Amino acid sequence: MTSVFLKDEKYYLRSLGEDPRKEIADLRKQFPLLADDIQIPEYFEKEQFFSTVFRISSAGMQLWTHYDVMDNFLIQVTGKKKVVLYSPRDAPYLYLSGTKSEVLDVDEPDLKKYPLFVKARRYECQLNAGDVLFIPALWFHNVTSEEFGVGVNVFWKHLPSNCYDKTDTYGNKDLAAASRAVQILDRALKTLEELPEEYRDFYGRRMVLRIQEKTYSTNYE
Ligand SMILES: O=C(O)CCC(=O)C(=O)O
């Protein structure tokens, strides 16, 4: 058989709903003939189910470091994958842009550009066929396929349904209250711009302290 791919070309399939803006990926709907081949571990209630995403990747394919807002089982069906994980508490060292890290090469990062990255503690594992990795919500993950592989991941809502953004079909939009809080913070920052620099600095620092006092959990170093 002749390959339709060029020598160094990489490919990746991430299944979506019929209308990705409205529908979630669900193997039972989009791939009914394959759905029974996957046994989803009985770990959450049926009502908490969110999506089952089919993923096919070529050797060498690397998916950027990102977080999702739901708990997730990453099930490796065939092939091998390397997964590098970072705790949510290491977010300050990951140079985030939305839900993704700007540091693309996590093995040989550009430390001139991303000096704080060295502080992020790396956890690494390899997934072989038949392995299932639990990726908790907000844990950053970077996935490299070491050979051609097929996988499925299962997202479920571990929080009450109304916490999630209703327009989220991927499982990666920030929680509704988090997005609202960020909008309010942006407005507060705009308001601080009305102050002379010295005052802006003073009130900015006081606000940071207040945020720390009110939001950091006690065991969060
Ligand atoms: O296995 C992959 O290709 C990506 C997995 C992933 O990003 C996820 O499970 O959220």
UniProtKB/TrEMBL annotation:
Alphabetized SUPFAM superfamilies for the sequence: Clavaminate synthase-like
GO BP: wybutosine biosynthetic process
Q: Which PROSITE patterns match?
A: JMJC
Q: Which domain of life is it from?
A: Eukaryota
Question: Example GO molecular function term?
Answer: tRNA binding
Q: JmjC domain spans which residues? A: 29-173
Q: What is this protein called?
A: JmjC domain-containing protein
Q: What is the lineage of its organism?
A: Eukaryota, Metazoa, Chordata, Craniata, Vertebrata
